[in-house]
Amino acid sequence: MNQQALWYQSLDEDTVQCTLCPHLCNLKAGKTGICRVRTNIDGKLITEVNGFVSSIRFDPIEKKPLYHFYPGTSILSIGTYGCNLRCFFCQNCSISQTGVKAELPQTFYTPAQIVDMAVKKPANTGIAFTYNEPIVWFEYMYDIARLAKKAGLKTVMVTNGFINAEPLKALIEHIDAFSIDLKAFNEEFYSKVTSSKLEPVKEALKQISRAGKHLEIVNLVIPELNDDDSSFKDMVKWISSELGKETVFHISRYFPHYKLSTAETPISVMRHLKQIAERELTYVYSGNIYAESSETRCIMCHNVLITRSSYTISTPGIDDLGKCKVCGNDFLKKT
Ligand code: SF4
Ligand code: SF4
What we know:
- The chain has helices at 93-96, 111-120, 138-150, 165-172, 187-194, 199-210, 229-243, 267-278, and strands spanning 3-4, 8-12, 15-18, 26-28, 38-41, 44-47, 52-53, 55-60, 74-79, 107-108, 124-129, 154-159, 177-181, 214-221, 248-253, 284-287, 293-297, 304-309, 312-314.
- By secondary structure, the chain is of the alpha/beta class.
- It has 3 domains: 3-47, no CATH class; 52-289, Alpha-Beta Barrel (TIM Barrel), CATH 3.20.20; 291-335, no CATH class.
- Strands 8-9-11-12-13-14-15-16 form an 8-stranded mixed β-sheet, with helices on one face. Strands 1-6-5 form a 3-stranded antiparallel β-sheet, with no helix packed on it.
């Protein structure tokens, strides 16, 4: 459903500038932004995806991935169409690299219907905005997040982090946890492979961290494009110094998809980079590796808190308040 967008300014009678993300698209009447879903209609910026859901299901929260936020629970996960990036390797290109088209599946839900669904599901933690890039349906996400908080639900955003500071500030108030892709640590990669920029993503990460929100970072390792030791070391050192040594960091294995046919990341490279990351960060996990299991130990007494085998999650060492059962260390951030 079309709705007037937030975050834009009129430049002249028929031109608007969208100020939601750092692309800052200048749009003449009838033109649509890089994200394909925000259009200047008669001098007003309109979001075309308000309420149009392309994908909806209950997922394990570990699938976002979030490993230190309500482990072992499910979360209602929703997405629409569009994205402000153009990653060559996008795993969800069928929904991210298109706008709303009549031939594509789409179901309309009001924010209240989404919240109601999440509330009624037993053992459901909340609502995650995911699958495509949720920034592009900012207004809908914002409305749902506010309602969800009132209903006692947790809210999660799985995002590329390419958003301007003011809209992010408005969102942060109503989002409890962020899973953010840090796709590489050089501007050339961001420019050539994703059609965006690294610096605004770093700023968004710092803003979220300063706000004290739960934050986990994902780096998809792609052979020859972002797997060199030097830039990877710079990335993990930056995370440790700017965001904190205990920032949860996921290294994810790449498989060919969309425009990229490079062979999948060798397991040996994943293990090597994990060792480098572990020199700087306390919690490092590798993902997208078949049959690999992982565990999380208490940083104080080394008691096993969480075990994971695929999406079978067990929390033998955590009490109901999220504390270590042995030493009482308050490990899980339950916002
Ligand atoms: S959200 Fe879309 S329209 Fe707005 S600046 Fe970003 S890409 Fe352009
Ligand atoms: S930011 Fe995510 S959804 Fe958008 S193109 Fe890149 S990988 Fe796909």
